[in-house]
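Budget justification aside, the reviewers requested a transparent look at the raw inputs and outputs of the sequence design task funded under Objective 1. We therefore reproduce one unedited record. The lines immediately below are the C-alpha cells for a 291-residue chain.
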C-alpha cells in the first residue's frame, strides 16, 4: 500500500514538472501578441513625443508673441519663453514614458529627491537664480541704467540669470550676484527722466550777495540744457568760517546731468572774478605781538 502511494506521488510530481515545462514552451503566437502589444505602446509613445513636442513649440511661440505685444523686456521674454518651453517638454516626455508603462510615481519621487539634494548643495546659487527672476519680473533696473549698488557704481551691461554685470566709468567690469541685488539697497540714477543738479557756491565776506545771485541766474538762463520747469532755486545756505555759501539747485534731463554740472562749475570759476566776486579758500590770519 505504501509502495503504491509512493508511486502515485512520483507520478504526480513528474506530471507537474511536465506541466511547468509545457508552460515554458516557445510559442510564436505569444511572441506575436507581445510584439503587437509593446509595439503599439511604443508607436503611441513616439506619436505622443513627436506631436507633443510640436504642440509645446507652438505654445511657447504663442506665449512669446503675447509677451512681445505687452512690451515685456527682451531679456525677460527670452527667459519666460525658455521656462515655459522646458516645462512643456518635460511634461511631454513624462507622458510618453507613461505610455511605455514606466511608473511615474517613483520617477517623480526620484526627481524630487534629486531636486532637494541639489537645492541644499546650491542654496546660494538658487538664491541668485530667484533674485534674477525677481529682477526680470519687477524690473528695478534695465540694461543701460546707471546704478549704485553693493558699494559699486556703473552702467548695467547685462542682466543674467545669476548675476548682474556692471561697467564702471573707467571701463572695469563688475559682477554682482542677483541675490544681493534683489535684497539689497540700490540707487538707480537713470530711472527718472529728470534729475536735479545741486551746487554749493562760496563767496567772500564783503561780496555783494545780490550780485552773486544775479550772476548765477544769468548762468541758468543762458544754459539751454537747464529746464525752466521745475523752477531753479538760489539761496543762502551757510555762513561758514571762510565763506558765505549759496546753494544752487537746477533741473535737467537725466542724460544732460554731467554736461550741466561741469559747465556750471567752469563758468563760476571763470566769470565770478569779472563780476567782482571772490571764491574764498580756507586761510588763517596770524597776529604776532612783540613783548
Amino acid at each position: 500500500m505504501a509502495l503504491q502511494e509512493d508511486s502515485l506521488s512520483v507520478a504526480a510530481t513528474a506530471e507537474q514538472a511536465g506541466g511547468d515545462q509545457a508552460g515554458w514552451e516557445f510559442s510564436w503566437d505569444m511572441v506575436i501578441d507581445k510584439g503587437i502589444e509593446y509595439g503599439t505602446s511604443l508607436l503611441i509613445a513616439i506619436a505622443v513625443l513627436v506631436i507633443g513636442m510640436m504642440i509645446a513649440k507652438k505654445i511657447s511661440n504663442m506665449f512669446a508673441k503675447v509677451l512681445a505685444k505687452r512690451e515685456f523686456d527682451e531679456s525677460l521674454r527670452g527667459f519666460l519663453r525658455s521656462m515655459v518651453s522646458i516645462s512643456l517638454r518635460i511634461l511631454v516626455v513624462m507622458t510618453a514614458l507613461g505610455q511605455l508603462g514606466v511608473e511615474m510615481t517613483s520617477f517623480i519621487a526620484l526627481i524630487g529627491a534629486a531636486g532637494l539634494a541639489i537645492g541644499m548643495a546650491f542654496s546660494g546659487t538658487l538664491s541668485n537664480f530667484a533674485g534674477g527672476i525677481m529682477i526680470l519680473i519687477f524690473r528695478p533696473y534695465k540694461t543701460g541704467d546707471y546704478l549704485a549698488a553693493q558699494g559699486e557704481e556703473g552702467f548695467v551691461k547685462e542682466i543674467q540669470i545669476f548675476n548682474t554685470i556692471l561697467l564702471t566709468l573707467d571701463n572695469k567690469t563688475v559682477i554682482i550676484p542677483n541675490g544681493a541685488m534683489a535684497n539689497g539697497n540700490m540707487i538707480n540714477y537713470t530711472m527718472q527722466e529728470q534729475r536735479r543738479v545741486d551746487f554749493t557756491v562760496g563767496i567772500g565776506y564783503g561780496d555783494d550777495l545780490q550780485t552773486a545771485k544775479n550772476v548765477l541766474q544769468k548762468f541758468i538762463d543762458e544754459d539751454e540744457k537747464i529746464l525752466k520747469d521745475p523752477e531753479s532755486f538760489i539761496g543762502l545756505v551757510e555762513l561758514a568760517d571762510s565763506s558765505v555759501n549759496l546753494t544752487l539747485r537746477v533741473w535737467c534731463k537725466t542724460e544732460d546731468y554731467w554736461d550741466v554740472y561741469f559747465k556750471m562749475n567752469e563758468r563760476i570759476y571763470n566769470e565770478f572774478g569779472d563780476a567782482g566776486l571772490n571764491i574764498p579758500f580756507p586761510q588763517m590770519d596770524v597776529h604776532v605781538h612783540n613783548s
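The first helix runs from residue 2 to 23. Residues 220 and 233 are 10 Å apart (CA to CA). Computational costs for records of this kind are itemized in the attached budget.
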